[in-house]
Structures are given as structure tokens and as C-alpha cells.
Amino acid sequence: AVMLLMTIGIYSQDITGVWQGKVTLGKGKEIVFIFDIQEVNGELSTTVSIPSQRVEGLKPKQTTFSNGGLTVDGSNLGMGYQGKYNSAKMQFEGEFQEGANKIPLNLKKETEEGSNEIEGNGKPQEPKQPYPYLAENVTFKNEAANITLAGTFTKPKEGSKFPAVVLISGSGGQDRDGTAFGHKNLLVLADHLTRQGIAVLRFDDRGFGESTGDFSTATTADFAGDVECAVEFLQKRNDVGEIGLIGHSEGGIIAPMVANRMQDNVAFIVSLAGAGVEGSETSLIVSKNLRPFPVPSEEAYERAIRQAIRIASKRGDIEKIKTELTAHYQKTIAPILRPMLGSKEKTDETIKGLVESRVTPWSRYFYGYNPADEFKKVKCPVLAINGSKDIQVPADVHLVAIERALKNGKTKNFKVKELDGLNHFFQKCESCKMSEYQKLDETFNSEALEVISSWILETVNS
């Protein structure tokens, strides 16, 4: 039930970086849009996130800039943005369009100091070249999916047969650096691990960066197939020893799946903010915790979302499922949204977006996937850590479930740890809401990084 977009250019100035804009709904409710603009192969590329809607990693079709005008072609997503740069206010002023609806949206650039000047916005922990280790751009194939995955392999300058890990990104298409909310958490993690003597392979998700393929039609199981190919790529190298997996968020539930598929080839796994309960329950928790509007009855809202997930999970003709789901939302959710959105037309458009997001291949697979089942079957050592302030994947629900699964499972070597005061991205936080992520200087808490690297080295050396 949200939107997104991308694009940029400001005459001869460098507009790469993070841009932010707000849309105010009824009763003071705000939706924050974050446009992360980067230059890729000589062209502008934007990643859009909408924190209050738990949306991250949206990729509009094209970003163009001409004569001070910014056009974000999000026709592949059912939306778009057009704006003109106001040099006096240092912002793009324009309109965001979703379907037939247009709303004013101005975008200002965020810097580390919180100003809106056009300048670099790299976070303090992002490593700067030259690195004290070797970095190699690599490609490998997923023959079954007929795609090529591109990434970066880093290793220490001296030594051989290094323990190695494959980094697995979270939900929403991401590049190899895990670029989101103005941070590059996978880059920071890879940098730390390599400095500790651990080789790292991180790669662009299919359909993103330099990787080919279609992200929009893929499921968690498909992404697991990509990770298997990454492991096979490392196995062919003569500079790699034992191979492990580190997955963040959705990556944390992909890791045990791959470990079970490749039991003889995966030496250990690390789950970072991974879920531990069935996808349908995770989706419900997210809908309740991150909902950007009040409801008359929490109990009635929960019943409505549970029923929506049941409908979306049905087998059969997808158009019939959409029709049933639309009728359900019109009966249960539309009366809540209409006073805030102001018209039936806007409410219908929002409902349409909700329905489409519920019935994607990824969503329908995710509802029925229970990572606890995979954690029970894992035979290799496991480290599972979650932040105590994570509102997306609450530790008191998910980490508890992972620990229970491991205690009742096949591995005898596991460690489960809740890290105090950290959010979903392992940042020390204050409000700990998603809207705060990009405002924090810290990308990945140093104590969390140490927990990960020390456990890996202890595990491979034992």
C-alpha cells in the first residue's frame, strides 16, 4: 500500500546521495520518502525506501535529469515523480503520482550534518580506498535461472585458504553493499570481516546493480538458489577454506535453507535479525508494529490482516484471489483509510496497491515458509543475533523462536544472543523507528561486528 520512485540531476552538480521528502495525510500522519541516488555505469540509479510502510529497495525504471527537471519513471511500479530544482531552497519541487492520483512532494538532500547542501554523504564507518586487503570484482552464474550474478570478493593480502563467507541481503532488492537508508551495512560488515582474516563474497541481488534477472518474480527459495551458486563459486577457488553464510533479515532465513541443501559444503551460518516464526505471522507483526495510522480496534485490525493473509495464500486463479481480497479490504480497511486519504478514489488506489503487494510471488511463498523448520534441521554451527530495539523483527518473538528450534534441532553448536539497544540494522538508536535509520551516523555497531567475527574465528579454529 505504498509508493516509491527515483531519479536526479542538478545541472553540473553532483546529486548522488540521499534525498528525503514528506507527505502529510490526515490528522498529522506523515509518510517519509527516501531517494538514494547513485551513479552506476555512467547512469543515475535510484533506490527508494518508505520507512513507515516497511518498504525498502524499490527500483524505478529510469531516472533522468534535463534543464533542472527531474523525472523518475516508475511505470514498472505504477508510479512516477517529476520535479524542478529550486536552487534558492536547494530542493526538488514537484509531484509524486500513483495511478491517477498526484500529491506534492519536495525532495531535499540529507548530509551527515543534517543540512541540505549538495555534498558527499558517506557515513563514518564506510571504508575508504586504498583498502588494507585485496578486492576483486567477480561474476558467477545461476544456470538454472539463466542469470549472471555480479559481486565483490575481498580477502587478506597475505595467507591462503582463508575462512570465507557469503553475505545474504535482506528483503527488497539490494546491491552488494546493502545500500539502504543512506548506509552500506554489507560493505561495512565485509570490511570488518576481511580485516579480521575472513574472506567475503557479497553480490548484487538478481536484477539489481550488475546482476541480471528479474527480482519481481523471485521468491525466497529463488534467492536461496542464487546463494547456492555463490557457495559453488567459492568452492572452485584455491584461496578459500571453510565456507559459511551470513544473512541479514530475509537473508537470515535463507541461510539455514541453503545450509540444509548443501550440508557437506556449508561450515557455519550466522543469522542477523532473522525471523524465527512462519511468514504469515511475521507479516502480521510487521503490519501491526509499523502501521502509520491509528485503528478503532486492534483486535478487529488483527483479524482483518489475518484474513487478508489467508485469502492471499490460497491456491487457485490469482485474479479471483485479487477480487476476494479487494472485497475484504473494502469492507475492513477502507473505512479506516478513507477519512485520512480524503476521497474514495484515493482509498481505492491504496487498496489496489495493498492487494498487489499481498499477492506477489514473493509474498505468497513467504506466508507459508517457517524458518524454524529449517533451523531444526541444520547440523552445522549457528550464531543468531538480534537487536533488542528491532521493531521489524522483534527479538522477543523471533530470537526466542530460533533458540527453541535450535534446542530441539540437530546442531549442538549454537549461540543465540540479544544485543542491547540495537535496531534492525544493528545501530545504536534513540527512537529506534525506521525513520531514524538514515539519520544515525553509525552503520553497524562495533560490538556487534566483534561478536560476529570472533564467533566465526573461534568456530573455524576449534
Automatic annotation (TrEMBL):
InterPro entries assigned to the protein according to its UniProt record, in alphabetical order: AB_hydrolase_Est10, AB_hydrolase_fold, Hydrolase_4
KW Endoplasmic reticulum (keyword) present: no
UniProt GO molecular function: carboxylic ester hydrolase activity
Alphabetical keyword list: Hydrolase
Domain Serine aminopeptidase S33: 189-275
Keyword Hydrolase annotated: yes
Name the record gives this protein: Alpha/beta hydrolase
Species of provenance: Xanthomarina gelatinilytica
Source organism phylogeny: Bacteria, Pseudomonadati, Bacteroidota, Flavobacteriia, Flavobacteriales
